[in-house]
Structure formats: structure tokens, C-alpha cells
Write a structure and sequence with these properties.
CATH class of the largest domain: Alpha Beta
Distance between the termini: 16 Å
Number of domains: 2
Shape: globular
Radius of gyration: 19 Å
CATH superfamily of the largest domain: Type I PLP-dependent aspartate aminotransferase-like (Major domain)
Number of strands: 11
Bound molecules: pyridoxal-5'-phosphate
Structural class: alpha/beta
Largest sheet: 6 strands, mixed
Order of helices and strands: HEHEHEEEHEHEEHHHHEHEE
CATH topology of the largest domain: Aspartate Aminotransferase, domain 2
Strand content: 15-25%
Number of helices: 10
């Protein structure tokens, strides 16, 4: 996340951060730390960003960079209007940074077609790999901004030009986390073997089954269907019960750890694929 932000945000740039929850808020915070003048567009809790509202904000603030999450893991909201939002940003030459940590490879994200300039993901969520290794992809336009920047990046470790030399020009940047890179290579190989289409389909089917099962128990899902993320499902805690007590019970009696939900009174379940290609429901752990 920080690599995308640090390389694309020049101190003094206007940045518009579409804030749906914890992780999209983090992108705003990172942009501010990189010296941007950040406008936060706060989206109503539990709702996807409305492309007309975002377009209006783009025309008002004229940002150089827009940050947004495809899926907001913290409250399980899905920004399904991402293509229209990217189009609005492109119309004024604004670069778009998309956090796809919990969504990449679980649902479509057409980076080039939609006009996304940086896609970020981590190993531990949609890719079903390990934490500690992350991927970032830059568009041609983004790369152009990176290579023509006149200031020196404040972050030595996150400097994409140094990383580019490291990966493609046999230069030394830092000692690579070799075991993590091997792990992510294997995770990506499994995705290629399965194919994205089959994987999207499997995630969708398993999520629908999970959602139906939860509702069949008489529980409510925390986000309306139209704005609901498939890769992480949020369940309302029934009245009279405490999220903390439920999680402690699940941990003690079933040895399943589910992390808290950043203050929201919901319980979240994510899914990941094991190496045989099955999708199993598991605790969504963000810590
Ligand atoms: C988990 C998550 C992150 C952060 O990943 P960490 O490795 O815990 O820093 C960022 N964005 C989204 C959407 C996430 O789900």
C-alpha cells in the first residue's frame, strides 16, 4: 500500500481518498504522511461508493491521485462501481490506486480496461498465501509519473525505481525475502493452473452457499446484497449477544480464531483456497 502511495503521491499533490472503512482510511493516512493534501470522501457505513458522488468530488477537488479499496475487508463492503469511478478520475488525468488485498483473484479486476494505475495486494488474503509478501502493479501512466518525478523519494526501501533496478537490472536493493517470494510464486502458479474464471466462479459459489447457510440459521448479513463483498462475509451479532463473547466461545470450544472487526458489532468470515483448489471457510484474520 505504502509503495503505491509513496511513489505516486508527490508532496503537495491533492489526493482524494474514498473512505469506506478501516483500510481505505489507511490509504488516506498514508497519503497524508507522504505530504499530500488529502480530501477524505467518507462513505456511509455499510454502503458502496456512489460513482456520481465520487465524480462530483473529483471535479471539486481536482486530485492528482485517487485512492480506493475494491473490497473493504473491515466492514465487508464491495465498491462495485470501481470502473465508473476510474473513468471519472481518468477524465481529469487523475491516477487511481486500488487496494485489492482481499479481492484480487477472487473476483474480476480489469486493471488496464478500467484504467487503474496501481493495484496492491498482499499474500495473505485473496491469493491464499502467506503474510509478509505483497504485490504492486503500476500502469504505464503511473510508471511515467514515477520515472519523471524530480524530487527524491523519502522512502528508500519503497522506491519503485530502486526496486525496478533490483528486479530487472541485477542491481542490489536489499536482501529479498526469498522464502516469501517462493511462496507467492507457488500461490500464483496455483491460480494460473486453476484459471481466474474457474476461481472467480468457485469463490462466488462458495460465498453464496456460505451466505445462504448463515441466513438459514436465522442470522442477518451486515451489508445489503447490492453492496456486499463476496470474499469476506460479515454477520450481524444478534441482539443480546456480545461479539467478544462469541469469538471467545468459538476460540475456546472450536479452536477457531476469528479476529475482531475494528469496533463493528459483526463477525466476519473470509474464504481461502487450499492447494487442492477447494475453498474452505475460515476465520478472517487481519492481525
Ligand atoms: C488486510 C488488508 C490490508 C492490510 O494488510 P496487512 O498486511 O494486514 O497490512 C489492506 N487492505 C485491505 C483491503 C485488507 O483486507
Amino acid at each position: 500500500m505504502e509503495m503505491a502511495v509513496a511513489n505516486l503521491v508527490v508532496p503537495g499533490d491533492n489526493v482524494l481518498s474514498v473512505c469506506n472503512g478501516f483500510f481505505s482510511g489507511r490509504l488516506a493516512e498514508m497519503s497524508a504522511r507522504c505530504g499530500a493534501d488529502v480530501a477524505r470522501l467518507e462513505i456511509e457505513e455499510g454502503k458502496a461508493a456512489d460513482p456520481d458522488v465520487v465524480a462530483a468530488a473529483i471535479h471539486e477537488y481536482r486530485p492528482k491521485v485517487l485512492t480506493i479499496v475494491q473490497g473493504e475487508t473491515s466492514n465487508t463492503v464491495y465498491n462495485h462501481a470501481l470502473p465508473a469511478i476510474c473513468q471519472a478520475a481518468k477524465s481529469i488525468g487523475c491516477l487511481v490506486i486500488v487496494d485489492a488485498v482481499c479481492t484480487l483473484s477472487t473476483m474480476p479486476l480489469h486493471m488496464d480496461e478500467w484504467g487503474v494505475d496501481a493495484v496492491i495486494t498482499g499474500g495473505q488474503k485473496g491469493l491464499s498465501c502467506i503474510p509478509g509478501v505483497s504485490l504492486v502493479a503500476f500502469s504505464e501512466q503511473a510508471w511515467n509519473k514515477i520515472t519523471t518525478r524530480e524530487d527524491t523519494l523519502r522512502h528508500w526501501c519503497l522506491d519503485a525505481k530502486l526496486a525496478d533496478k533490483f528486479w530487472y537490472q541485477s542491481s542490489y536493493h536489499y536482501t529479498a525475502p526469498v522464502s516469501g517470494i517462493m511462496a507467492i510464486h507457488e500461490a500464483l502458479r496455483l491460480i494460473c493452473d486453476e484459471t481466474l474464471e474457474a476461481r472467480f466462479d468457485r469463490h462466488l459459489k462458495c460465498s453464496m452457499a456460505l451466505q445462504a447457510g448463515i441466513q438459514g440459521l436465522g442470522l442477518s448479513l451486515s451489508v445489503e446484497k447490492a453492496d456486499r463483498l463476496n470474499s469476506v462475509v460479515g454477520i450481524e451479532v444478534p441482539e443480546g449477544l456480545e461479539q467478544k463473547a462469541i469469538l471467545a466461545h468459538i476460540s475456546r470450544d472450536y479452536k477457531v480464531e476469528i479476529s475482531g472487526s475494528f469496533g463493528l458489532n459483526i463477525v466476519r468470515i473470509g474464504r481461502w483456497a487450499n492447494s487442492a483448489g477447494y475453498t474452505i471457510s475460515s476465520a478472517q484474520s487481519t492481525h
